[in-house]
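Allow me, if you will, to draw on your knowledge of protein folds for a short while. I am sending you one protein, given as its amino acid sequence and as whole-number tokens for its backbone shapes. Kindly check, if you would, that the fold set down in the tokens agrees with what the sequence suggests. The record follows directly beneath this note:
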Amino acid sequence: MTIQFLFAIVFCFSYTSENALIGSWKTELDNSVVKIEMKNNVFEGVIIKSDEPKYIGVKIIKSVYKFEGKYKCQIYDPKVKKYFDATIELINESKLEVKASCCFGLFSKTYIWERQY
């Protein structure tokens, strides 16, 4: 009975942390809001609000996988029409750190996204 109880606790914590990315997040750029959802067991992010109406509906986060406590992914910059390698780390329940990089990590930029309720 103790092993089942421990398994249930571990499962609940991993389920909660995995789903903590799901939601709407306000970015630092263009007053955009990105909605992160899980589709077919994979996270993806789509712009649902932006000062630039042409960007609404654009998928900007794809190919998400967990690696060493962070999420690795591809993030799209609609201004330059290019995907970049990125990491996403949950700082707390209301903040994400999104770090995009190019040229094998030589150049990077870090952004803080805030959860929208």
Notes: Residues 96 and 104 are 22 Å apart (CA to CA). The helical segments are 2-19. Confidence is low (pLDDT under 50) at residues 1-16. The chain is about 15% helix and 55% strand.
